[in-house]
User: Fold these one by one.
Assistant:
Number 1:
Amino acid sequence: MHVRTNHWALLVINIKEKEFHVYDSLRNKDRRDIPQYVEELRRYMKGKHIDAENWSLRYPDPCPQQGSGDDCAIFTCKYMECLARRDTQALPFG
């Protein structure tokens, strides 16, 4: 998801656990818009007859953090790669 005007993070819908997971390489920054994205997803899912109203929003660990200010897209792609492979052991790549 595109956060603010200059940052990328990964929002995962975990249907099995009934949770939304956010993988954000700049976790300590103010990200007030992330809950807004989640609310939009909840409304969309409700339209598809999936009740996600009580699903929690989590920021899983480990979640590698970027050192520089312009690597968020690379980190987001790497999060997707590790999760697609179901290889959470590879997540501490940072």
Number 2:
Amino acid sequence: MPSRHRPLDPEILAAVRQLLEERRPAGVARQEIQGPHGLDAETARAYLREAGAIGHGGRGARWYLPTTRRH
């Protein structure tokens, strides 16, 4: 069943956010959560999307969590 039809596990989502807060690239974070949690690539990407690391309006991927920037 595709991941978008299942609720995301809050524990795994917290682990993804922690990896991204450590400034891990999204691809590395995906690999690091995919293996230990037994996720397929699509499900791992769903966690990254939910954490805000990828998929934001077609402007390309965010490698890290967004930070507040003052211009």
Number 3:
Amino acid sequence: MDTISGATRRNITLIILAIIAIFLLAGIFYATGILNKQETAEPDPSASIALLSQDMIEYAEDLNDVLPQRQGLNTTFDSVAIAPEKMFYYYSVQNLTLDDVSVPSVRDSLYTEAENRIPCTLWRPLFMQGVEVTFTYFSADNGDKLLSFSRSEDRCHEG
């Protein structure tokens, strides 16, 4: 009867342990996504720019190329910014304070000013359907945020 020597038996045991370790590591790598090509984690925030339409990116870039622009006696259209499904218009207003904006007629005037510039029925090109637009006014004198409101679909609401 053939017997396996102690050294050979030890080598076989080491080989079996190595094979088991390889399978365990492969299972761990697969479970953590290293070998599995499916993404299990949240998308990278820097990749969110890919969610923006090229038309929206070009629109914002083209608009920012010609800004800031004076919109009235005391109002300047400063810039626009975009995010997935959102667009932000930033204005600065001279000679206006937070106390002034607390007066409903002044606040309504700023709201109407933005609405007149971009009427509800005309303000969205096709690529902006479903995009929420926020208008934010800042004091040109001290940088205070005076008023912010958003328009989603055809309704406006303060934010």
Number 4:
Amino acid sequence: YVKKISRSFLPNGKSPEQREGGEGSGQGAFSSEVKYNKQGKIAMSMIYSSFDILDKPWWKLHFDERNTEYLISSVKHFQQVISSAVDNESNEFFWKGYIDLHRERYLLECVSAESDIDLTIGYVQKLLKKPGFLRMFCRRIFAKCLKPDRSSRLAKKVQNLYNVFIDIFPSIFLPDLPIDRFTPGFAKQLHRQIGNGLIKDAGQYRTQFVMAAQDNFVYMAPNLINDRMDELFRQCREKFGKTDLQLEEAIKYGACFLAYFLLIHPFINGNGRVARLLLSYLLSRFTVVPLSLYTGMMCIYSVYVKHSGIKTRSNLAHSQALYLSQRTYNRKLAELGSTYFRRDTYFQGALIFGAILAAGYELY
């Protein structure tokens, strides 16, 4: 949810990069990390893991005595269980059924969060069904005469998103997706696909200042987007391209990517959907994708970026700790585990890992 703003509506009538420190503009957030090389180009550390995880961080419930080492080891254990179980061909149809269900749950959570409506799995499944011949014929004939209503736009949104992750994520667990594909051009491609028929100039960077619709937080200046995106994705390829990358580092790297991408806010609309898909791509070696981040809050991205600040690494450690929220974990198990997989524990690891990233949002 963003709104376009003109320069006259900015504080003091100045653009964010003209104001000292860029307070509230997304520019000041980078002030402690920006350096320039000999050619005058941007050289900043966006993706790093040098922030500590506190023994009793803010996200833990007061009665939870487990430490982060225990939680991380549990996730690794369930990863091994999932990998070994998938190798069993007798479970092929079960895994296929889970993947289909997982994708539908992802659509349900994602679209419900962005559209501020309550959906059901049945309704999502209905939206994914191909329309009959008569409906398709009428839609094509009268497309220019009929203004799309809310329900048809919602259906298009669901179908676009579904087609995207069918296109980029194979129907297997823990795939090793090529990191060389992770470029700003890839982000633009995803935006074109999710914005097909919905977003004007889909796949193009915005050329206007925008701010959160319900908050006085201005995203990055449009003239800085191209360079920042190039550098952000270059650093991601470097960090996630390491063959010995471990879970702990991957979580922290993913946290950094998500925060910086949303601060840059490269597109006029659809940034949240693109960010989630890109993060899922980066973490595909470690969890079931697409990775859910929904916690039932509106404007979670602007709230997250505003509170994270990204002004010092100590702030980043607190706001992006990204470790377990026990409430989220329990809710996920209640929604999926008890209903569909009561006798199967293989996916608890995936649910835990999904909750890790949700933890960064839930308490704001």
